[in-house]
Specification:
The protein is mainly α. Helix content is 80%, strand content 0%. It contains five helices and no strands. Helix 3 runs antiparallel to helix 4 and helix 4 runs antiparallel to helix 5. The termini are far apart.
Length: 107
């Protein structure tokens, strides 16, 4: 890829595709756990907990699909782009739920 050609060390080039996919899934699980932990830390309310739980399951499931898809470059690139876009949506919706919880708490 362009990164490798520029001399950057990226996970797929250093550790291989399979390990990189596992790292994505592990990261997704940790991200989902952090989202849910906001409720236990009293940062968010019930709305945030429900949103974090649902979004976390969705994001981990989407990420885990990378472990079973075809290893062709086109399929891998499409999956990686989908996971990236999903991470942006995950964060936006979770922060939105936190904002709603904050507004409700101030009423």
């Amino acid at each position: 890829t362009e990164y490798v050609a520029a001399g950057h060390q990226v996970a797929p080039a250093v550790w291989g595709q399979r390990t990189s996919r596992v790292l994505v899934v592990v990261s997704a699980v940790l991200l989902a756990a952090c989202g849910v932990s906001l409720w236990f830390a009293h940062v968010g309310g019930v709305i945030s907990l429900v949103a974090a739980s649902a979004l976390g399951v969705w994001f981990v499931a989407l990420s885990a699909r990378g472990l079973v898809i075809d290893v062709s470059a086109a399929t891998t690139n499409a999956w990686a782009r989908r996971v990236f876009r999903a991470s942006l949506l995950y964060q936006t919706l979770l922060f939105g739920a936190l904002a709603v919880d904050t507004l409700i708490a101030r009423l």
